[in-house]
């Protein structure tokens, strides 16, 4: 089997994502028709915490098909750049940008590994470095990620991260109260199963993937070590997905039932550069 520290983890993950891009692009989950008609995927707590982006330069790391990236452009960002290691995803993002009337000077998309972002972006820095939900688990080295991400933050700018909480990632499906994995472990969680989160029954061939859990302390410490000041760290007792069997839908969120123990399921942070 491939080793987690060798190059094969990246090849496996990229093949897995590349194959799923057309499935995602055609899905009701991403609903490109609604997005093109005006759906704002950055709305909600993220928009509130990031604040006014009017006139700002924003880069979205691990942007997938670019809906969040383009939502920030719609919200007034002067320039947005989305970066993802999946070339098919970047092509979909470019197509969406064109259909929305955004030229590459306003909304550009780059196919590159996040660890190579500095070189891929030509040393450009940004007022806002944004990483959306479900991105960090695909990276083995959080310290290296923080070094690269921090280097993209311009003086006076900030990094904003919204993610699934690492504690929630290690709890059991049945109750969400028992540890099934090591919270502090560095070994990958390896899966080899068909389907995808928009269609669990999809017939897929490239199914081997590697994920890592990054403890909250590791994320915060890595950003601080690269010259960023933590402005806030928020933990939430709800999530956007049916992460455990016991979660109950509450509007657009999923929560544990009243009277049961509650774990943090998502978090967000903002870290600024002087």
How would you portray this structure in words?
The protein is built from 8 helices and 12 strands. The chain is of the alpha/beta class. It has a single domain, classed as 3-Layer(aba) Sandwich (Rossmann fold), CATH 3.40.50. A 7-stranded mixed β-sheet has the order 3-2-1-4-5-12-8, sandwiched between helices. The protein has a 3-stranded antiparallel β-sheet with strand order 9-11-10, with no helix packed on it. Strand 10 and strand 11 (253-255) form a beta hairpin. Helix 1 packs parallel to helix 5 (87-99). The longest helix is centred in the N-terminal third of the chain and has 18 residues, at 8-25. The protein is globular, with a radius of gyration of 18 Å. The model has no long low-confidence stretch (mean pLDDT 95).
Question: From the helix content, strand content and strand pairing, which structural class follows?
Answer: alpha/beta
Oligomerization state: single chain
Biggest sheet overview: 7 strands, mixed
- Poorly predicted regions are none
Q: What does the secondary structure layout of this molecule look like, with pairings?
A:
Layout: H1 8-25, H2 32-36, H3 45-50, E1 57-61, H4 67-74, E2 79-84, H5 87-99, E3 107-111, H6 117-120, E4 126-131, H7 142-151, E5 153-164, E6 189-192, E7 208-211, H8 216-225, E8 229-236, E9 238-239, E10 248-250, E11 253-255, E12 266-272
Parallel strand pairs: 1-2, 1-4, 2-3, 4-5
Antiparallel strand pairs: 5-12, 6-7, 8-12, 9-11, 10-11
Helix pairs in contact: 1-5, 7-8
Domain Methyltransferase: 62-157
Keywords: Methyltransferase, Transferase
Pfam families: Methyltransf_25
